[in-house]
Amino acid sequence: MATLEIRDLHVSVETENGTKEILKGVDLTVKQGETHAIMGPNGSGKSTLAYSVAGHPKYTVTSGTVTLDGEDVLAMTVDERARAGMFLAMQYPVEVPGVSVSNFLRTSATAIRGEAPKLRTWVKEVRTAMETLQMDPAFAERNVNEGFSGGEKKRHEILQMELLKPKIAILDETDSGLDVDALRQVSEGVNRVRETGEVGTLLITHYTRILRYITPDFVHVFANGRIAESGGPELADKLETEGYEAYTTKGGASA
Amino acid sequence: MAEAQNIPAGSTTAGSIAVAAESTVATRMSAPPSFDVADFPVPHGREEEWRFTPLDRLRGLHDGTAVATGEGVRVEVTAPDGVTVETVGRDDARIGRAGTPADRVAAQAYTSFEKASVVSVPKEAVLTEPIRIAVHGIGGVAYGHQVIELGAYAEAVVVIDHTGDAVLAANVDYLLGDGAKLTVVSVQDWDDKAVHVAQHNALVGRDATFKSIVVTFGGDLVRLHPRVTYAGPGGDAELFGLYFTDKGQHQEHRLLVDHNAPNCKSNVAYKGALQGQDAHAVWIGDVLIQAAAEGTDSYELNRNLVLTDGARVDSVPNLEIETGEIAGAGHASATGRFDDSQLFYLQSRGIPADEARRLVVRGFFAELVQQIGLPDVEERLLAKIDAELEASV
Ligand SMILES: Nc1ncnc2c1ncn2[C@@H]1O[C@H](COP(=O)(O)OP(=O)(O)O)[C@@H](O)[C@H]1O
Ligand SMILES: [Mg+2]
User: Fold this and answer.
1) Which ligand 1 atom is nearest residue A172's CA?
2) Domain ranges, residue A189
3) Contact by Cβ (8 Å): B149, B120
4) pLDDT at position A37, please?
5) Which of A95, A97, A108 minimises the CB distance to B350?
6) Which of B352, B362, B370 is the closest to A111 by Cβ?
7) PROSITE patterns of this UniProt entry (chain A) (predicted)?
8) Which residue in B11, B138, B142, B146 has the fewest CB atoms around it within 10 Å?
9) pLDDT for B263-291, tens place per residue?
10) What residue spans of chain A are helical by DSSP H?
């Protein structure tokens, strides 16, 4: 069973005013089949955690380790991490002009699976996945994320998750900016992948809203670059009523 | 794509819209157009039309020292039935009708060529197969003249392929009869040492449609000068270009659309990618809308994607409007670095870095290719781009 282990992770970025430490010792273990929600206020470092684990070049790991089944993830290139089974649904998916969704999906599926999927079954696989996410088939011929609405971009991210079948999926605010219908469809997509029992999910969110559709096994409160508190789903209820205030005021993070 | 705010050091992106009584497109040339090389002084390099070009790499095309060798290039024309292919002498009436040499090298080519090739498509003939012209350099110096003539309402696609090694200066004339439709794909796929300087003159007949697709990959120095004028109202010209400038290469495209007749359209879109030390791309886009050209609709665009340090782009759009009665006119120029966030996105989906870079560059070009509107030509070009990227990115 695949396990992602993050140990004492410290990450900094270069800013105009010098180096800034954003992650200040993150510890987290996510196993295949589990769902962890990471909740925290804006600017607490949630995206930094997601990007660092995926290998974004802007973020420098200054200490700590990340392993997938004991393999050193930090030593892998971005594409090696993906081929090892990691997936990041981005908060702000990137536009790639002139590259069609169908070409993109097929190229990445070929890379992840190690061989080109058979054309006939592949076309059907993509069509079915798009239908269940209520995506217009015309999307396949559009350029990646170009002119997509916020909701379309997020559906497209989940479409990739369904097709690429990662061992560990990090979903960075996939719920933000979605209306209720889109939120439900996107959540159903995530749940379909979860029900296979073959993915460990790290659900990063600012709001508790998505947790009505996706029930986490664990909830972690993220504040000031580290996990301030961990618990079960009931912790989300507490956040719903009390907000993040207790964690953001100075010294409150030890609660 | 990263936009104009992201301009690599060493590039210039200047633009101007001038409203002038007298055209500066014409007056900033060091001499008026002429068929006689003696009317042009030997350039020293500071002239407006030569300031971006490394004269020392022209191998004498600019100063009279490049002497034609017996057989510098081999030209082979393959045309479907009904098309006339002739080799004619200098006195043929069709030669030089589409335009006049605008600079010293074009005039040198005109003064020096011995035989011209004339390809004619009779009026109302609609070709289903392209005309192919293979220009293959065999290491010599050559001066050429090519005429492609379409009678009224004729339709044709012409594919000109340049390969091998040569020092070549040429003029290419496109004569479009009323209502004719001509698409020309000119591919510069030269070997590394080749030098190719050419002026393309299109004379677009009344209600005729001219589509030019220029694809420059190879050569040490390639300098092309596509020019369009209109023989009557209602003409439509689309000038597309793609270039991939590798280390040490100089690739220069200088365009002029002279809107001299009313109710004509022009659309110019050139895109280039550069990589490697001293890769140098130059794009000059001149559009002149004369006082008589009421109802003109014109747009020009140049985009450059800089993949590595050490490459340089000079992009200069220039729009001159002498009448207020136009349908539209605009220009855009942007030079950006390779966008690392696109690379990250693709890599995060398992796609290896090299392949991801190729996808992004291919996409950059594909956006333009998709506008050509001829599936055959589009497919062939994308295959060509794939091969070029496979070999070099
Ligand atoms: N590339 C960067 N350059 C400078 N500061 C950054 C960068 N990325 C993130 N930050 C800063 O790090 C902090 C955490 O950001 P982020 O990880 O995006 O938080 P969250 O996702 O929780 O909203 C913020 O203060 C943000 O401004
Ligand atoms: Mg974030």
Assistant:
1) 21
2) 3-242
3) yes
4) 97
5) A108
6) B352
7) ABC_TRANSPORTER_2
8) B138
9) 999 999 999 999 999 999 999 999 999 99
10) 46-54, 78-83, 101-113, 119-132, 150-164, 180-195, 234-242, 245-248
